[in-house]
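Protocol step 4 of 6: structure prediction from sequence.
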Amino acid sequence: MNITIVHYNIIPVTHYGGTERVIWYLGKELSLLGHNVTYLVEKGSQCNFATIKNIDHSVNIWAQIPENTDVIHFQHQPGDIERAKHPYVVTMHGNANKDAFIDNNTVFVSKNHAERYSASTYVYNGLDWDDYLNPTFSKENYFHFLAKAAWRIKNVKGAINVVKKAKNGHLKVLGGDRFNFKMGMRFTLTPKASFYGMVGGKEKNQLLNKSKGLIFPVLWHEPFGLAIIESLYYGCPVFATPYGSLNELINKDVGYLSNNRKELTHAIKNIGNYSQKSCNEYAIENFNAKKMALSYIEVYHKVANGNLLHTQKPKIKNIQTKKFLDWFE
């Protein structure tokens, strides 16, 4: 198949950029499986296994699709659907908390994610684990938090409190700074946490490789969570809230879920109950790029044959009126 992947950003990513990382590995795996991949992305992108075409913002996106395309794969909800000349799918990577219909050919990133929009088609994200460091399973005395700490829904404060009360390690915050000028001059004083900013690449992987576990007490319905599978790959059990995809991705062998700080604190005190090797094997088996690519190929064939992924347009079931989901200290 000739597959065109559309995304309004630069690839490859070097630091943060979950969507960019996912579509890079998707395209790479599709190419290895014998498909022809074109990325329609922003200027400055480079790739050695696919064709790069730069987006021209003065021209409608539909007019920029190569004529030989069999399936277009958008990473955003496209407008002007009436201009579509090729079959297409749309991956929804985040949450849309509004009372509006979305495209019939939307692919969600977890079962829970799909169900919250009265939909059924989803594909788990997968990564190319060959690009990651070999797990050493030699841990130091710290846990990690991996998310944009400036987003209050990610609950870095809760993560710090979980570790602080456990008194059995330190928390390394990957994705934020102690001084946060953008969010009203916030300053995190505690010596129980150290901050590494928007760290990525080799440095991030080295920090994950030595960590005892991921503390991830998010206060929203997580659509998927690359931080989860990256941490599991390095043998880190996940201690998180039971929201969104978390109940689906984390079983009792690879982590513990609760929206109660005391329960999560108790769980990390008993971290020896979790097998680092089991966490690693679980991530490799279930969330690899080849498995993701094969799942998308099934979706591509469905729309290429003239079928809709959903006969009725997906729409959120319940608008979330609370800014943050429950967290009990």
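Step 5 (inspection) to follow. The longest helix spans residues 289-304.
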